[in-house]
User: Which sequence fits this backbone?
């Protein structure tokens, strides 16, 4: 299981990559593995300001649909439009090409509440 040390994580299996005042968000390698083959990613919240814990979209796999949760508060500046045509990118490259949203961070102090790679690993292994 791939858990890059450079990222932050949530117990809901989202990852966060901080770049200045922005954060890129996707689902973890563990999450995509648990879901199986991803067939559709629906995110209709571009331009909206959401709070930490709010649902920003859904991901549909062959057997299930799962909500996607905001790891931190902010405005969704961009959605990865490539996922419309190739949702399987989330399975193939969850941390790079499979990113889902770009957020303008509204409360940087919330970053302190995210999990480190080691903390996230303990969530996935029980």
Assistant:
């Amino acid at each position: 299981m791939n858990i890059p040390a450079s990222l932050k994580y949530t117990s809901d299996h989202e990852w966060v990559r901080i770049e200045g005042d922005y954060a890129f968000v996707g689902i973890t390698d563990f999450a995509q593995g648990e879901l199986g083959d991803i067939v559709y990613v629906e995110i209709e919240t571009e331009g909206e300001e959401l709070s930490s814990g709010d649902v920003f979209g859904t991901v549909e796999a062959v057997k299930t649909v799962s909500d996607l949760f905001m790891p931190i508060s902010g405005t969704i500046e961009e959605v990865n439009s490539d996922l419309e045509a190739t949702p399987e990118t989330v399975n193939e490259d969850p941390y790079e090409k499979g990113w889902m949203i770009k957020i303008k961070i509204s409360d940087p102090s919330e970053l302190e509440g995210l999990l480190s790679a080691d903390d996230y690993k303990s969530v996935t292994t029980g």
In short: Strands lie at 8-9, 14-19, 22-27, 38-42, 49-50, 55-61, 65-69, 74-79, 101-105. The two ends are 14 Å apart (CA to CA).
